[in-house]
Every structure is written in C-alpha cells, then in structure tokens.
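As noted in the main text, all predictions were made from sequence alone. Below is one such record, for LysR family transcriptional regulator.
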Amino acid sequence: MEVFVAVASVGSFTVAAKELNTSRTALGAMIDALEETFGGQLFNRKRSVGISLTTNGERLLPLAISLLRDAENIGHEIANTQDLSGELLIGATVSLAGTVVPHLLERLAKTHPRLRLRIVVRGVDELIEMLNVGGIELLLSYATSTPVQKLASEALFGTKLGVIAAKTVSLGEVPDVSVNQLAGRSVVILDNAVNRQNLFDYLRRVAAPEIDVKYRVGTLPLCIEIVQRGLALGIVPVFPLMKDQLPESIACYDLNPAPSFYRASISWRPDVSLSFQAKVAIEELRKLCLEQVW
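Prediction:
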C-alpha cells in the first residue's frame, strides 16, 4: 500500500522509487503484484502523458492512505508519547505561506521538535489536485471545496483587501483610503486567482474608477518590496499576521467602501483519515488564530 500511495502522490514510478530507496524495476513489480491482487489496473500508463489513476485506483487511494495513517496513529497510541516524529506535508497558497506558515512552524518546533514538515507553495488549483492524490495532507488556502471534490474545512480567520503604501507616499493622516484615491496611481497586486477575483468583484461592486494595475506579482514579499521602493500602492489581503511582517516604512490602510470578508481555511479530504501530525497542526493553528487581535 505504501508503494501504491507513493506512486499516486508523485505521479511517477521513477520518482516514487527514489523516495522509497528502491529500484524502478522492484517498484514496478510490487505495483504489478498489487494490481493482480485487486484484479485490475490501478494506474493508466501512457508514455506521452505519464501515469494517472484508473477508476479502481481512485477508489483505492483514500482507503490506502487511511490504512497507512491509521496504522501510524495506532503506533502513537501504543507508545503514548507526546513527542511526535515523522513528516507532515502541508500545502499553502502564496499569501498564507509567507505569513501564517512561519508562525505555525515556530509553534510546532517548540511542542514537537522531532516532527519534520514539508511545505509546498503553489496555486490553489494545483494544491487541491495534490490533496486529491495524497501529495499533501493539509491545505492552507482560501478554498473550501471544488465542483468535483468536497473538502472538509475549518475556517481560521477572516481577511479583507486593504492598501499598503510607503510612508513617503502621501495618502493623508487617515485610517482608510477611498477607492477613488487609487485612480491615476500605479498599483501592485498578488497575481493569484482568489486575490484577482476578490479585487475585481470589489471594484465592480463599488463602481470604482479604472485602476492602473501596473505590477502583478507572485509573492507577498515582492509586493511589499515594490511598495517599499515607492513604485506602487499595494492592494493585498490584510490580517494581523500579515501586518506583523510589514516594515516600519510601510503603512497599512483600510479600503473605503469596505470590502467583503473572506475566510482563510485549513482543509483536508473528508474520506481520508488524518494523521496525528495533521491533528496536532490543526490544533496549533486554532490556538494561533485565537491569540491574534483581529
């Protein structure tokens, strides 16, 4: 089962063999034996497009992942130890990877120093696909489900769009910025689907004047750097953990009219057992969010 899950999660026999420290030939033989046991192919094998799960493979995958995690969880129960080890795979979208994830890692390093974590930073669509095939166990994003895959999700905190600007840029001594003040100014935004959708929905809703989106960037640190250099105003998701990372030279403003809130969530597949490591991470995220002043 471990071999099957490894191949499904990385989409490659060769890569899975390297991760499991075995040969490609030996791994292929184990998959062949597993397919013979279940009486049908688990993977489609096409050289032009690589491998993918068959219908039988898709049915088996959540059961196989749950079986492996349940076995590991039993081991933790028997050992009755609070000092977790092993590896937890978490996917995070760009804006949350640079803000929430470092705080989570710091907390887990204190409470479970032997726990290893692999953080995958991608767009939300790619992360959902990775979650679907077992490439990650938890997803930190603004998504809660997809048309074909319902996710189990827990809302962590609300966020809304705000404006960041270098303090050398004159926007007035006020806590908020009118959307009309953005007209004629260069703007930088985070170039991901959720941020774009929320921004353009907001601009339509308030009948805002045309905004000059001069820069679309993939990471929050780059967005902050552009703002700090006075090249543009930033329109970004604003929440306490994000504000904590802003340099002293940057001011943060509310938008007026106020945008709608949207929720950052931690998600997982509801048909797959969660590992002890994942449960601990979720609990630490709950505590982290409760401690913030919103």
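The chain has a mean pLDDT of 87. The two ends are 44 Å apart (CA to CA). These features were considered when defining construct boundaries for the mutagenesis experiments described in Section 2.9.
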